[in-house]
Amino acid sequence: MKFYGKGVVWNPDTNKPLCRFVKGELETTDKYVIGRLIERGYRHEQVEETLEELREAARAAGIKGFALMKRETLIERLSEDE
User: Fold this and answer.
1) Given the DSSP bridges, would you call strands 43-45 and 25-27 parallel, antiparallel or unpaired?
2) Which of 4, 13, 62, 78 has its CA 20 to 30 A from that of 32?
3) How far apart are CA 10 and CA 62, in angstroms?
């Protein structure tokens, strides 16, 4: 997902930075970060990756069996590896 904002977003649970916007944007697949930013009302949009892009990322991440995985499974596995 792509979010829009400025600077650093602080995580009060860990008392550490949650994320940092670069040039006003942040793109992430981390479910925790996505949830926290949505809770705080940051403007966002869904970024759709093609199945081929997801397979390329899975290949680079060393995920076995990626060629037979469905799109949703690939997204889930890639977000687990981050």
Assistant:
1) unpaired
2) 62
3) 32
Full DSSP string of 12-60: TTTTEEEEE-BTTEEE---HHHHHHHHHTT-EEEPPPPPHHHHHHHHHH
pLDDT band at 18 (very low <50, low <70, confident <90, very high): very high
Q: Which of 71, 69, 24 lies closest to 43, judged by CA?
A: 24
CA–CA separation, 13 vs 44, rounded Å? 22
Q: Do 75 and 55 meet the contact criterion of CB atoms below 8 Å apart?
A: no
pLDDT at 42 over 90: yes
Alpha-carbon torsion (26, 80, 38, 13), positive or negative:
negative
The domain spans of the chain are: 2-45, 51-81
- pTM beyond 0.90: no
Q: Say how far apart CA 51 and CA 25 lie, in whole Å.
A: 24
